[in-house]
Design goal:
Elements (H helix, E strand, L loop, with lengths): L4 H19 L2 H4 L2 H36 L7 H18 L11 E7 L3 H21 L3 E9 L5 E9 L3 H5 L4 E7 L10 E11 L13 E6 L15 E6 L4 E5 L5 H27 L4 H5 L7 E6 L4 E4 L4 E3 L2 H5 L4 H17 L1
Parallel strand pairs: 4-9
Antiparallel strand pairs: 1-3, 1-5, 2-3, 4-5, 6-7, 7-8, 9-10, 10-11
Helix pairs in contact: 1-3, 3-4
Length: 347
């Protein structure tokens, strides 16, 4: 290990015991936000802590076997197990993103390319929803603005399940498509884009929003062609005055439901903004070496003529476009996670 193994193990054991003590402290227990944070920390340290205990026990067995002539034949097997466990421990001690276990909110927007970009945004939504389904996650559409051609100007949806953010965070950025649009009579290939923003869902106790910081407008919902969908003022637009963030919601018939959904998205955006500031303060964090997840960053190209998908962050190309658009994204996710871990171990 980069530093002496003993020092790393001591640090780990101290952190684990400190987290345990804090969890049983009544002042922490009564503070929902701090209790949630300490609980996550404890859960994060539990795996490495158990591996460390197992590794230390193996080291003792190995030392005993080397000294006892009757146990000499066990030495090669114990050495192999110790080496394997040390590698597992190294990987387990790579700091994880505290948001990894959370549910996630994704916002997909058409980019460059007019109607074709809106159709592409719809294809991306279906791809990511299918990926969630394959992972046995639940999805919930929070808001959508369908385009007249059958795609989406934008669509926002939540994905719920253990580790949803750790899976979907790699999808943030610009997705570029190269294909012949259905409306193209000359058969020319067009390039269009859609952007994906991926935000961990924040809990109410973590992001406290002062009601005085909100400007709430209500209005009538409108359909794709501008016609009024219903006759009551059920659509809601919330402006967060300190940051200027605006969230509109009109999919539900009830004003209360639209407001609740808008607040979920607003909380996620504020939490995401807070995390972005922390990342900037820490300069180049590990994840930004692979990709920042910013909308402007081009992460993947989908070429229909060659059935080719290329992830530009890890230079991985696959020629199975249909399967990928049907949600088979595990190869990309696993390669991105491996590269992230490799860089973290180097650091």
């Amino acid at each position: 290990m980069a530093r002496s193994s003993d020092t790393l193990i001591e640090d780990l054991e101290r952190s684990y015991k400190e987290a345990q003590e804090r969890m049983s402290d009544p002042s922490v227990y009564n503070d929902h936000r701090e209790a949630a944070e300490v609980g996550r920390k404890l859960k994060e340290l539990e795996g490495p802590y158990k591996l460390a205990q197992e590794w230390q026990a193996l080291l003792e067995d190995l030392a005993a076997a080397r000294e006892d002539p009757d146990l000499k034949e066990l030495v090669p097997e114990l050495e192999e197990r110790t080496t394997r466990l040390e590698e597992e421990l190294r990987l387990a001690m790579v700091p994880t993103d505290p948001a990894d276990e959370r549910d996630v909110i994704l916002e997909i927007r058409q980019g460059v390319g007019g109607d074709e970009a809106a159709l592409w945004a719809g294809d991306l939504y279906r791809m990511l929803a299918r990926y969630a389904e394959r992972k046995s996650y639940k999805t919930e559409v929070l808001s959508s603005s369908p385009s007249e051609g059958g795609g989406f100007k934008d669509v926002t949806f939540a994905v719920k399940g253990d580790g949803a953010y750790s899976v979907f965070k790699w999808e943030g950025g610009t997705h570029r498509v190269q294909r012949v649009p259905q409306t193209e009579s000359q058969g020319r290939i067009h390039t269009s884009t859609a952007t994906v923003a991926v935000m961990p869902e924040a809990e109410e106790v973590e992001i406290e929003i002062d009601p005085n910081d909100l400007k709430i407008d209500v209005y009538r919902s409108t359909g794709p062609g501008g016609q009024s969908v219903n006759t009551t003022d059920s659509a809601v637009r919330i402006t967060h005055l300190p940051t200027g963030l605006v969230v509109s919601m009109q999919d539900e018939k009830s004003q209360l439901q639209n407001k609740a959904k808008a607040m979920r998205v607003l909380r996620a955006r504020l939490y995401d903004e807070e995390r972005r500031k922390q990342r900037e303060e820490q300069e180049a964090t590990r994840r930004s070496q692979i990709g920042s997840g910013e909308r402007a960053e081009k992460i993947r190209t989908y070429n229909f003529a060659e059935s080719r998908v290329t992830d530009h962050r890890i230079k991985l190309t696959q020629h199975r476009l249909d399967a990928i658009l049907d949600g088979e994204l595990d190869d990309f996710t696993e390669a991105l996670v491996s590269e992230d871990r490799r860089q973290a171990l180097e650091a």
